[in-house]
Design goal:
single chain, about 200 residues, globular, mainly alpha
Amino acid sequence: MSVSERRIKERIEMQQHILSTARNIAAKDGWQNLTIRKICDEIDYTAPVIYQYFESKEKILENIRYDGLQQMKLTFEKINSKTSNHENRLIEYASAWWKFALKNSEIYQLMYNLQGAVCPIKDNLPIHIVEFYINSFIEINTKAKKSKTYSLELCDNYIAIIHGFIAIRMVNKIKSGNESAEKVYINSIKRFIQSIKNN
């Protein structure tokens, strides 16, 4: 490995270390309590060193959010590779969001500015995620196939069900109880899909 390659590798490793430390602090203390100073204390570096890798705390948050969305994109690609039925894909996408949010709650909170997380969001949801939904909607709904506007409307409906359920699950407000929350959630997704088939 050349000197330049080693430096690039070390830079990437340090960036990942900073991001991991930020996530750990958020998991323990909440996003509202994350500061550059706390990151410095955890990894035993001074603030100027951190700023060599990220120009601000906001850039750290943006990177964590982006990594979360990329992880979901890869998950959706795996779903597509093993599931050809578009109704089942939509159910699997929703299930993947549920599992991701519960396993990586602090990342999910940052991605959607929940629980005190504040990350500047240039777009509500990157188009590469929305395209997965649209591709399935146009296969099961003739109106969506003819109208991009209507397919985006269906995306809004679908996204609202997914992230609405996850948000109320995170604050323990599922009226039927947390034990049955995932089942109620998936059944709601199924009813939505059934309601738009061939409309």
